[in-house]
TrEMBL record:
One of its GO terms (biological process) is oligopeptide transport. It is a multi-pass membrane protein. The lineage of its organism: Eukaryota, Viridiplantae, Streptophyta, Embryophyta, Tracheophyta. Keywords: Membrane, Transmembrane, Transmembrane helix. InterPro entries: MFS_trans_sf, POT_fam, PTR2_symporter_CS. The chain crosses the membrane at residues 71-90, 102-124, 144-170, 191-210, 216-234, 334-357, 369-391, 411-431, 451-472, 493-512, 532-552. GO terms for cellular component: membrane. This is Uncharacterized protein.
Length: 566
């Protein structure tokens, strides 16, 4: 019989000394808040730097518009791709606590160096007249090296933090306890809302400091915020609950693939119940007919049968359980959905690159106050908040009343988000066509075109509404459809959709520049002389094709998921 003391202990978690974690003195909301505070400050710091980076490259480093855009999107892509590396490192070696601590300090190093580089004259080219771009000297190799070192240190830090904060925050709640499980759901449902609030502050207050006070103060403020978050995070060391490293799920995937390849020529047993399984009825996963070739990893041949009898153990690179095979199948099954949600982040990349450059050429004044070009992303964030608020307060109650379901499915949210993103680009084409007509009728020496920047608001708002639905739909899908032991990998895989979206944006920019150069360059150094509207039109067409592929993938996923065998 369990005593009150043993009931207070959590079986799968330990405290900072390695002893079984006590429910009353570890974990809970306070611990989770200390952990997720790092993510909040990282988001604030990274967004404050990232959404205004293209104007720094164009205005201070004197790089062409398309080059500046590609640098920003490549940096963003690598940042989120590194989250996959951070997740593997945490699961295999460091654990989530040390991964967050180490990588948060790397993030501080990068933002600090970036702040310093803005005030050291030798780290940037001399100022010039923006109306005479031919007289502007581009940043040299040494200056760009310092810049790259700074922003990619931030990228490394971002990758390590993002891969672990959600998981480490989840560790602070015992999912076997109904009360703590409900607390966790409530906490995380609202955390994304507060992160968006932090992002809104970043793209307004912090960007205003960069543009109107000084870049060094803007980047320096980001550094201070990250340092404070680390202090708060480390101060909670004694309160946290820790989970042991279970090994990388990448290794498990490789084991199944290797074992299936080695046994590719073996025939299946007449009774499929003879396939290797070590899990009990309540924890095993039923075998599915999909990806049947992987089932060969669970075939027990004569040599393995003898080893099992003699030693009672197996070689995981030659024999895997049905449940392990099914976990790999589950990860494989989500790949088409993963691939068809990437395209949205190509559109997202335009909001922090070319859309900011568009805003920089337009009138942005409200009375005597001029809105920084990058701060138009505030409309993007505001749309996310409004969309989430409407969904939480109106859509969910309506759906419960009419269909007895807790809101839209993850597939529906992602599909609607992708559809709205197509509308976003159509609107962007129309607005850019209008802006270019004004630019063509205005002298090249005029820095601010006689057209209001508020024409850009609809595309920012639509993109934000699309992200609010798509992002939450993705998060739900990747966490619920992945195996229990691969949640960190699944979260990292979700974040790579952002990475590949940014990479594809860079690739499209390079391809369009190469194809159109020498005729009528769509993306010249000065966007007023290009055809950005046609570039946006190409993205709209690609997004429509992608939506068709997504709908087919979603239908295929639901149909194949039901093909299980007992």
């Amino acid at each position: 019989m369990a005593t009150p003391t043993t009931m207070m202990l959590i079986s799968d978690a330990v405290d900072y000394k390695g002893a079984p974690a006590n429910r009353s003195t570890t974990g809970g909301w306070l611990s989770a808040a200390s952990i997720l505070g790092v993510e909040l400050c990282e988001r604030l710091s990274t967004m404050a730097i990232g959404v205004n980076l293209v104007t720094y490259l164009r205005g201070t480093m004197h790089l062409p518009s398309a080059t500046s855009s590609s640098i920003v999107t490549n940096w963003g892509g690598i940042s989120f791709l590194l989250s996959l590396f951070g997740g593997i490192l945490a699961d295999s070696f460091l654990g989530r606590y040390w991964t967050i601590t180490i990588f948060a300090n790397i993030h501080v190093l990068g933002s600090c160096l970036l702040a310093i580089s803005t005030v050291v004259p030798s780290f940037r080219p001399p100022p010039c007249n923006p109306s005479l771009p031919d007289d502007c000297e581009e940043a040299n190799g040494v200056q760009m090296l310092v810049f790259y070192f700074a922003i990619y240190a931030i990228a490394v830090g971002l990758g390590g933090i993002k891969s672990c904060v959600s998981g480490f925050g989840t560790d602070q709640f015992d999912q076997k306890d109904d009360k703590e499980k409900s607390q966790m759901a409530y906490f995380f449902n609202r955390f994304y809302f507060f992160i968006s609030i932090g992002t809104l502050i970043a793209v307004t207050v912090f960007i205003y400091i960069q543009d109107k006070v000084a870049r060094v103060w803007g980047y320096g403020s980001c550094t201070v915020m990250m340092i404070l978050s680390i202090v708060v995070f480390v101060s909670g060391t004694r309160r946290y609950r820790y989970k042991k490293c279970l090994g990388s799920p990448i290794v498990q995937i490789m084991q199944v693939l290797v074992a299936a390849f080695i046994k590719r020529k073996l025939k299946f047993p007449s009774n499929m119940q003879q396939l290797h399984e070590i899990y009990s009825e309540d924890s095993k996963i039923s075998r599915t007919t999909q990806f049947r070739c992987l089932d060969k990893a669970a075939i027990i041949d004569d040599a393995e049968s003898s080893i099992m009898i003699e030693s009672g153990s197996t070689n995981p690179w030659r024999l895997c359980s049905v449940t392990k095979v099914e976990e790999v199948k589950m990860m494989t099954r989500i790949l088409p959905i993963w691939a068809t949600t990437i395209m949205f982040y190509v559109i997202h990349a335009q909001m922090i690159t070319f859309a900011v450059l568009q805003a920089a050429t337009m009138k942005r004044s409200i009375g005597s106050f001029q809105i920084p070009a990058a701060s138009f992303n505030a409309f993007f964030i505001a749309a996310i908040l409004i969309t989430l608020g409407i969904y939480d307060r109106l859509v969910i109650p309506l759906w419960k009343k009419k269909k007895s379901t807790p809101g839209l499915t993850s597939f529906q949210k992602m599909g609607i988000g992708l559809f709205i993103s197509i509308i976003t680009m159509i609107v962007a084409v129309i607005v850019e066509y209008r802006r270019l007509k004004v630019a063509n009728s205005t002298s090249d020496e005029v820095l601010t075109l006689p057209i209001s920047g508020f024409w850009l608001v609809p595309q920012f708002m639509l993109a934000g509404a699309a992200e609010g639905l798509l992002y939450t739909g993705q998060l739900d899908f990747f966490l619920t459809e992945s195996p229990k032991g691969m949640k960190a990998l699944s979260t990292s895989l979700f974040l790579t959709t952002i990475a590949f979206g940014f990479f594809i944006s860079s690739a499209l920019t390079a391809i369009v520049r190469k194809v159109t150069q020498g005729r009528h360059d769509w993306l010249p150094p000065n966007i007023n002389q290009g055809r950005l509207d046609l570039f946006y039109g190409c993205i709209a067409v690609l997004s429509f094709i992608n939506l068709v592929l997504y709908l087919w993938s979603a239908k295929w996923f639901v149909r194949k998921k039901t093909h299980t065998l007992n």
